[in-house]
């Protein structure tokens, strides 16, 4: 792993260089590789639910068990999906993103201490 460019003592940290560093770009790439697919998945799932509730009324009113309908189950599924996505992202961030970010932050703090 290459460190961000070192600055002589008394100079300002070049944050643009840090942002363009391979480690920071990898961090952004990993973040986007998870956030975009999850966002697209959830939005499609949400709009399918909204469209079904608007245009497939008979399907959504189908009783599954007693007074429980398909629409109710899919609506509750929205909450389950939201919590699952949140928990999955938190795990990913804690285990994959945070260690990389901590390493970059540590390098910047060392540079700041020397400046």
Provide the succession of SSEs.
HHHEEH
Task: Describe the global form.
Answer: elongated
**Fraction in beta strands:** under 5%
Distance between the termini: 23 Å
> Which stretches are poorly predicted, pLDDT < 50 over at least 5 residues?
none
What is the average of the pLDDT values? 90
The number of helical segments is 4
What helical percentage do the residues reach? over 70%
List the strand order in the largest sheet: 1-2
Helix and strand composition category: mainly alpha
- Oligomerization status of the protein chains: single chain
Q: Rg from C-alpha positions?
A: 23 Å
Total strand count, please? 2
Major sheet, described briefly?
2 strands, antiparallel
Q: Could you please describe the fold and organization of this structure?
A:
The protein has 115 residues and is mostly helical. It has a domain at 35-106. Helices cover 77% and strands 4% of the residues. The chain has four helices and two strands, in the order αααββα. It has helices at 15-19, 22-55, 57-60, 70-114, and strands at 63-65, 68-69. The chain has a two-stranded antiparallel sheet. β1 (63-65) and β2 form a beta hairpin. The radius of gyration is 23 Å and the shape is elongated. The chain starts with 14 loop residues before the first helix and ends with a helix. The model has no long low-confidence stretch (mean pLDDT 90).
């Amino acid at each position: 792993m290459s460190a961000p460019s070192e600055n002589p003592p008394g100079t300002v940290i070049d944050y643009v260089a840090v942002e363009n560093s391979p480690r920071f770009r990898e961090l952004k790439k990993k973040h986007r590789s998870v956030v975009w697919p999850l966002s697209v998945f959830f939005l499609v799932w949400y709009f399918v639910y909204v469209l079904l509730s608007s245009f497939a009324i008979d399907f959504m009113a189908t009783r599954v068990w007693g007074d429980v309908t398909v629409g109710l189950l899919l609506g509750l599924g929205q909450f389950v999906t939201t919590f699952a996505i949140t928990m999955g992202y938190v795990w990913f961030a804690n285990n994959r993103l945070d260690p990389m970010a901590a390493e970059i932050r540590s390098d910047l703090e060392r540079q700041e201490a020397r400046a």
